[in-house]
Specification:
This protein is of the alpha+beta class and 334 residues long. It has one domain: Beta-lactamase. It is 37% helix and 21% strand. The protein is built from 14 helices and 13 strands. It has helices at residues 51-54, 56-60, 69-75, 83-96, 113-122, 134-147, 160-173, 197-207, 214-222, 224-227, 238-245, 280-294, 299-302, 308-311; strands at residues 4-11, 14-26, 32-35, 43-45, 183-185, 191-196, 230-232, 235-236, 250-255, 259-264, 270-275, 314-316, 322-328. The strands form three sheets. Strands 1, 2, 3, 9, 10, 11, 12 and 13 form an eight-stranded antiparallel sheet that branches. Strands 4-6-5 form a three-stranded antiparallel sheet. α3 (69-75) crosses α9 (214-222). The chain is globular. The model has no long low-confidence stretch (mean pLDDT 95).
Protein backbone atom coordinates (compact mmCIF):
# COMPACT_ATOMS: atom_id res chain seq x y z
CA UNK A 1 0.00 0.00 0.00
CA UNK A 2 1.18 3.50 -0.77
CA UNK A 3 1.01 5.97 2.08
CA UNK A 4 2.63 9.08 3.42
CA UNK A 5 4.83 9.99 6.36
CA UNK A 6 2.49 11.10 9.15
CA UNK A 7 5.13 11.50 11.87
CA UNK A 8 8.85 11.76 12.46
CA UNK A 9 11.03 11.32 15.51
CA UNK A 10 13.96 13.72 15.59
CA UNK A 11 16.95 13.02 17.83
CA UNK A 12 19.42 15.86 18.11
CA UNK A 13 19.49 17.51 14.70
CA UNK A 14 18.51 14.50 12.61
CA UNK A 15 15.40 12.50 11.77
CA UNK A 16 15.85 9.08 13.36
CA UNK A 17 12.52 7.47 12.45
CA UNK A 18 9.72 8.13 10.01
CA UNK A 19 6.26 6.64 10.38
CA UNK A 20 4.08 5.93 7.38
CA UNK A 21 0.34 5.84 7.86
CA UNK A 22 -3.12 6.64 6.62
CA UNK A 23 -5.96 8.78 7.97
CA UNK A 24 -9.52 9.21 6.73
CA UNK A 25 -12.30 11.53 7.89
CA UNK A 26 -15.86 11.02 6.67
CA UNK A 27 -18.68 13.55 6.86
CA UNK A 28 -22.15 13.05 8.33
CA UNK A 29 -23.32 11.40 5.09
CA UNK A 30 -20.41 8.94 5.09
CA UNK A 31 -18.55 10.58 2.21
CA UNK A 32 -14.79 11.00 2.45
CA UNK A 33 -14.08 14.53 3.63
CA UNK A 34 -10.32 14.20 4.05
CA UNK A 35 -7.83 11.45 3.25
CA UNK A 36 -4.07 11.28 3.36
CA UNK A 37 -2.36 9.82 0.25
CA UNK A 38 -3.36 6.20 -0.26
CA UNK A 39 -5.84 6.20 2.64
CA UNK A 40 -8.93 5.60 0.50
CA UNK A 41 -7.36 2.38 -0.80
CA UNK A 42 -5.88 1.32 2.54
CA UNK A 43 -7.28 -1.91 3.95
CA UNK A 44 -6.49 -3.37 7.34
CA UNK A 45 -8.00 -5.30 10.21
CA UNK A 46 -10.48 -3.49 12.44
CA UNK A 47 -8.98 -5.11 15.56
CA UNK A 48 -10.40 -3.85 18.87
CA UNK A 49 -11.88 -0.76 17.23
CA UNK A 50 -14.65 -3.18 16.20
CA UNK A 51 -15.75 -3.82 19.79
CA UNK A 52 -18.60 -1.28 19.99
CA UNK A 53 -20.19 -3.04 17.02
CA UNK A 54 -19.59 -6.58 18.23
CA UNK A 55 -22.03 -6.10 21.11
CA UNK A 56 -24.86 -4.99 18.80
CA UNK A 57 -26.51 -8.44 18.55
CA UNK A 58 -26.86 -8.39 22.34
CA UNK A 59 -28.33 -4.89 22.20
CA UNK A 60 -30.71 -5.83 19.37
CA UNK A 61 -31.99 -8.74 21.47
CA UNK A 62 -32.55 -6.39 24.42
CA UNK A 63 -30.26 -8.23 26.83
CA UNK A 64 -28.16 -5.10 27.41
CA UNK A 65 -31.06 -3.85 29.53
CA UNK A 66 -30.10 -6.42 32.16
CA UNK A 67 -26.58 -4.95 32.32
CA UNK A 68 -25.46 -1.74 33.95
CA UNK A 69 -23.97 1.00 31.77
CA UNK A 70 -20.64 0.25 33.43
CA UNK A 71 -20.87 -3.39 32.33
CA UNK A 72 -21.89 -2.45 28.78
CA UNK A 73 -18.97 -0.02 28.55
CA UNK A 74 -16.58 -2.78 29.64
CA UNK A 75 -18.07 -5.02 26.94
CA UNK A 76 -16.57 -2.54 24.43
CA UNK A 77 -13.26 -2.21 26.25
CA UNK A 78 -9.59 -2.84 25.90
CA UNK A 79 -9.16 -2.29 29.62
CA UNK A 80 -5.94 -1.89 31.59
CA UNK A 81 -6.53 -4.67 34.12
CA UNK A 82 -7.19 -2.63 37.26
CA UNK A 83 -9.11 -4.00 40.23
CA UNK A 84 -12.14 -1.99 39.09
CA UNK A 85 -12.06 -3.67 35.68
CA UNK A 86 -11.59 -7.16 37.12
CA UNK A 87 -14.51 -6.59 39.50
CA UNK A 88 -16.89 -5.71 36.65
CA UNK A 89 -15.70 -8.64 34.50
CA UNK A 90 -16.33 -10.95 37.43
CA UNK A 91 -19.80 -9.48 37.86
CA UNK A 92 -20.60 -10.10 34.18
CA UNK A 93 -19.51 -13.72 34.49
CA UNK A 94 -21.61 -14.16 37.63
CA UNK A 95 -24.65 -12.85 35.76
CA UNK A 96 -23.96 -15.51 33.13
CA UNK A 97 -23.55 -18.20 35.80
CA UNK A 98 -19.94 -18.74 34.69
CA UNK A 99 -16.39 -18.44 36.01
CA UNK A 100 -13.24 -17.19 34.33
CA UNK A 101 -12.58 -20.73 33.09
CA UNK A 102 -15.16 -20.01 30.35
CA UNK A 103 -13.09 -17.12 28.96
CA UNK A 104 -11.16 -18.00 25.80
CA UNK A 105 -9.32 -14.68 25.52
CA UNK A 106 -6.06 -16.04 26.92
CA UNK A 107 -3.80 -14.55 29.56
CA UNK A 108 -1.41 -11.63 29.39
CA UNK A 109 0.09 -9.25 31.91
CA UNK A 110 -2.20 -6.30 32.72
CA UNK A 111 -1.79 -3.36 30.35
CA UNK A 112 -1.11 -1.18 33.39
CA UNK A 113 2.50 -1.77 34.51
CA UNK A 114 1.51 -0.56 37.99
CA UNK A 115 -1.14 -3.27 38.27
CA UNK A 116 1.23 -5.92 36.93
CA UNK A 117 3.91 -4.94 39.47
CA UNK A 118 1.40 -5.01 42.30
CA UNK A 119 0.25 -8.52 41.38
CA UNK A 120 3.85 -9.74 41.36
CA UNK A 121 4.65 -8.08 44.70
CA UNK A 122 1.57 -9.59 46.32
CA UNK A 123 2.19 -13.01 44.80
CA UNK A 124 -1.20 -13.01 43.09
CA UNK A 125 -1.66 -14.83 39.78
CA UNK A 126 -2.38 -13.15 36.47
CA UNK A 127 -5.60 -14.64 35.12
CA UNK A 128 -7.82 -14.27 32.04
CA UNK A 129 -9.70 -11.59 34.00
CA UNK A 130 -6.70 -9.29 33.48
CA UNK A 131 -6.76 -9.73 29.70
CA UNK A 132 -7.72 -6.39 28.17
CA UNK A 133 -10.49 -8.11 26.17
CA UNK A 134 -12.01 -10.04 29.08
CA UNK A 135 -14.94 -7.62 29.45
CA UNK A 136 -15.99 -8.19 25.86
CA UNK A 137 -15.69 -11.95 26.18
CA UNK A 138 -17.63 -12.02 29.47
CA UNK A 139 -20.46 -9.95 28.00
CA UNK A 140 -20.68 -12.05 24.85
CA UNK A 141 -20.67 -15.23 26.93
CA UNK A 142 -23.55 -13.74 28.92
CA UNK A 143 -25.39 -13.15 25.63
CA UNK A 144 -24.69 -16.71 24.48
CA UNK A 145 -26.07 -18.11 27.73
CA UNK A 146 -29.23 -16.02 27.36
CA UNK A 147 -29.67 -17.34 23.81
CA UNK A 148 -29.02 -20.93 24.84
CA UNK A 149 -26.01 -21.21 22.52
CA UNK A 150 -23.04 -23.49 23.00
CA UNK A 151 -20.29 -21.52 24.76
CA UNK A 152 -17.29 -23.78 24.15
CA UNK A 153 -17.17 -22.68 20.49
CA UNK A 154 -18.26 -19.03 20.82
CA UNK A 155 -15.16 -17.78 18.97
CA UNK A 156 -15.55 -19.98 15.92
CA UNK A 157 -16.63 -18.32 12.68
CA UNK A 158 -19.61 -20.65 12.27
CA UNK A 159 -21.00 -19.93 15.76
CA UNK A 160 -24.35 -18.07 15.84
CA UNK A 161 -22.73 -15.25 17.84
CA UNK A 162 -20.12 -14.60 15.16
CA UNK A 163 -22.68 -14.90 12.38
CA UNK A 164 -24.96 -12.34 14.03
CA UNK A 165 -22.07 -9.92 14.57
CA UNK A 166 -21.13 -10.24 10.89
CA UNK A 167 -24.74 -9.66 9.84
CA UNK A 168 -24.87 -6.41 11.81
CA UNK A 169 -21.64 -5.22 10.19
CA UNK A 170 -23.09 -5.90 6.75
CA UNK A 171 -26.33 -4.11 7.59
CA UNK A 172 -24.52 -1.00 8.82
CA UNK A 173 -22.31 -1.00 5.73
CA UNK A 174 -25.26 -1.53 3.40
CA UNK A 175 -23.88 -4.83 2.12
CA UNK A 176 -25.96 -7.71 0.84
CA UNK A 177 -26.08 -10.93 2.84
CA UNK A 178 -23.89 -12.69 0.29
CA UNK A 179 -21.25 -9.95 0.12
CA UNK A 180 -18.02 -11.14 1.64
CA UNK A 181 -16.15 -9.48 4.49
CA UNK A 182 -12.81 -11.16 5.01
CA UNK A 183 -12.17 -12.09 8.61
CA UNK A 184 -9.15 -13.12 10.62
CA UNK A 185 -8.47 -14.11 14.20
CA UNK A 186 -7.69 -11.35 16.68
CA UNK A 187 -5.13 -11.65 19.46
CA UNK A 188 -7.86 -12.62 21.93
CA UNK A 189 -9.33 -15.21 19.56
CA UNK A 190 -12.37 -13.19 18.43
CA UNK A 191 -13.10 -12.70 14.75
CA UNK A 192 -11.72 -9.49 13.30
CA UNK A 193 -12.68 -7.84 10.02
CA UNK A 194 -10.55 -6.76 7.08
CA UNK A 195 -12.00 -3.45 5.89
CA UNK A 196 -11.09 -0.39 3.88
CA UNK A 197 -10.18 2.51 6.16
CA UNK A 198 -13.03 4.72 4.82
CA UNK A 199 -15.52 2.01 5.82
CA UNK A 200 -14.18 2.09 9.37
CA UNK A 201 -14.64 5.86 9.49
CA UNK A 202 -18.16 5.49 8.05
CA UNK A 203 -19.03 2.89 10.68
CA UNK A 204 -17.95 5.27 13.43
CA UNK A 205 -20.05 8.00 11.87
CA UNK A 206 -23.02 5.64 11.97
CA UNK A 207 -22.23 4.66 15.56
CA UNK A 208 -23.45 8.04 16.80
CA UNK A 209 -26.42 8.29 14.42
CA UNK A 210 -27.95 4.81 14.57
CA UNK A 211 -30.65 4.18 17.18
CA UNK A 212 -29.48 0.62 17.83
CA UNK A 213 -26.02 1.92 18.77
CA UNK A 214 -27.30 4.57 21.20
CA UNK A 215 -27.05 2.43 24.38
CA UNK A 216 -23.46 1.56 23.47
CA UNK A 217 -22.49 5.19 22.88
CA UNK A 218 -24.16 6.31 26.10
CA UNK A 219 -22.39 3.62 28.12
CA UNK A 220 -18.95 4.29 26.64
CA UNK A 221 -19.16 8.03 27.20
CA UNK A 222 -20.67 7.66 30.69
CA UNK A 223 -17.87 5.30 31.76
CA UNK A 224 -14.78 6.08 29.67
CA UNK A 225 -12.63 4.68 32.49
CA UNK A 226 -14.16 1.27 31.75
CA UNK A 227 -13.38 1.48 28.01
CA UNK A 228 -9.64 1.77 28.71
CA UNK A 229 -8.56 3.29 32.04
CA UNK A 230 -5.37 4.02 33.93
CA UNK A 231 -2.07 2.97 32.36
CA UNK A 232 0.06 4.25 35.22
CA UNK A 233 -0.38 6.81 38.00
CA UNK A 234 -1.30 10.17 36.47
CA UNK A 235 -1.63 8.73 32.95
CA UNK A 236 -4.77 7.32 31.37
CA UNK A 237 -5.24 5.62 28.01
CA UNK A 238 -6.13 7.91 25.11
CA UNK A 239 -9.66 6.51 24.69
CA UNK A 240 -10.50 7.47 28.25
CA UNK A 241 -8.85 10.89 28.01
CA UNK A 242 -10.53 11.98 24.77
CA UNK A 243 -14.00 10.95 25.88
CA UNK A 244 -13.52 12.71 29.22
CA UNK A 245 -12.08 16.00 27.94
CA UNK A 246 -14.70 16.23 25.17
CA UNK A 247 -17.51 15.75 27.71
CA UNK A 248 -18.60 12.66 25.81
CA UNK A 249 -18.77 14.29 22.38
CA UNK A 250 -16.00 12.07 21.02
CA UNK A 251 -16.55 8.31 21.02
CA UNK A 252 -13.20 6.57 20.73
CA UNK A 253 -11.82 3.06 20.48
CA UNK A 254 -8.23 2.07 19.86
CA UNK A 255 -7.23 -1.08 18.03
CA UNK A 256 -3.99 -3.01 17.96
CA UNK A 257 -1.25 -2.53 15.37
CA UNK A 258 -1.70 1.20 14.90
CA UNK A 259 -5.49 1.33 14.39
CA UNK A 260 -7.65 4.04 15.94
CA UNK A 261 -11.25 5.06 15.27
CA UNK A 262 -13.56 7.73 16.64
CA UNK A 263 -16.74 9.62 15.97
CA UNK A 264 -17.91 13.14 16.66
CA UNK A 265 -21.42 13.04 18.10
CA UNK A 266 -22.10 16.70 17.35
CA UNK A 267 -21.17 16.58 13.66
CA UNK A 268 -21.73 12.91 12.82
CA UNK A 269 -18.23 12.68 11.34
CA UNK A 270 -16.02 9.62 11.66
CA UNK A 271 -12.26 9.16 11.64
CA UNK A 272 -10.03 6.13 11.14
CA UNK A 273 -6.24 5.94 11.44
CA UNK A 274 -3.70 3.23 10.66
CA UNK A 275 0.04 3.50 11.38
CA UNK A 276 2.01 1.08 9.22
CA UNK A 277 4.51 0.09 11.91
CA UNK A 278 1.77 -0.44 14.48
CA UNK A 279 3.47 2.00 16.85
CA UNK A 280 0.98 2.91 19.60
CA UNK A 281 2.79 6.06 20.76
CA UNK A 282 2.93 7.50 17.25
CA UNK A 283 -0.67 6.51 16.55
CA UNK A 284 -1.84 8.39 19.64
CA UNK A 285 0.15 11.48 18.72
CA UNK A 286 -1.25 11.49 15.18
CA UNK A 287 -4.80 11.10 16.53
CA UNK A 288 -4.44 14.02 18.95
CA UNK A 289 -2.89 16.21 16.24
CA UNK A 290 -5.79 15.35 13.92
CA UNK A 291 -8.40 16.10 16.59
CA UNK A 292 -6.73 19.45 17.21
CA UNK A 293 -6.66 20.37 13.50
CA UNK A 294 -10.27 19.29 13.03
CA UNK A 295 -11.39 21.49 15.91
CA UNK A 296 -13.02 18.55 17.68
CA UNK A 297 -11.82 19.75 21.09
CA UNK A 298 -12.16 23.15 22.72
CA UNK A 299 -9.08 25.29 23.28
CA UNK A 300 -9.43 24.81 27.03
CA UNK A 301 -9.60 21.02 26.64
CA UNK A 302 -6.42 21.04 24.56
CA UNK A 303 -4.51 22.62 27.45
CA UNK A 304 -5.53 20.03 30.06
CA UNK A 305 -2.67 18.12 31.67
CA UNK A 306 -4.18 14.69 30.90
CA UNK A 307 -3.75 15.35 27.17
CA UNK A 308 -0.14 16.49 27.34
CA UNK A 309 1.50 13.01 27.25
CA UNK A 310 -0.04 12.59 23.79
CA UNK A 311 0.71 16.07 22.45
CA UNK A 312 3.95 17.26 24.06
CA UNK A 313 6.47 17.21 21.17
CA UNK A 314 9.54 16.81 23.39
CA UNK A 315 11.41 13.49 23.19
CA UNK A 316 12.86 12.54 26.58
CA UNK A 317 15.54 10.05 27.51
CA UNK A 318 15.33 7.75 30.55
CA UNK A 319 16.63 10.54 32.78
CA UNK A 320 13.75 12.75 31.61
CA UNK A 321 16.14 15.01 29.71
CA UNK A 322 15.04 16.51 26.35
CA UNK A 323 16.96 14.88 23.52
CA UNK A 324 14.75 15.54 20.50
CA UNK A 325 11.18 15.98 19.37
CA UNK A 326 8.22 14.41 17.61
CA UNK A 327 6.95 16.01 14.41
CA UNK A 328 3.44 15.30 13.14
CA UNK A 329 3.15 16.08 9.44
CA UNK A 330 -0.62 16.21 8.97
CA UNK A 331 -1.97 19.25 7.17
CA UNK A 332 -5.16 20.52 5.61
CA UNK A 333 -7.68 18.88 7.94
CA UNK A 334 -9.37 22.10 9.05
Amino acid sequence: MTGSILAEMVRGNHVENQYMGWLVVTDAKGSVKYATPGAVECQTYFRSSAKPFQVLPMVAAGFHQQLTQQELALACASHTGTDAHVLVVTRLLEKAGLTDSALQCGIHSPVSPAVASQLIRQGNPITPLHNNCSGQHAALLYFCMKQGWEISTYQEESHPLQQEILAHFKELLGLKALDDIDTGTDGCGMRTYYLALPLMAQLYGQLVKTELCAPVVEAMTAYPDMVAGDIQPNKQALDTVLMQVSDGNLVCKAGAQGVYCMSNRQTGEGMAVKIASGDKEIRNRVVVAAVKQLGWLTESALTLDVLQPFSDPVLLNLSKEPVGRYQITLSGLA
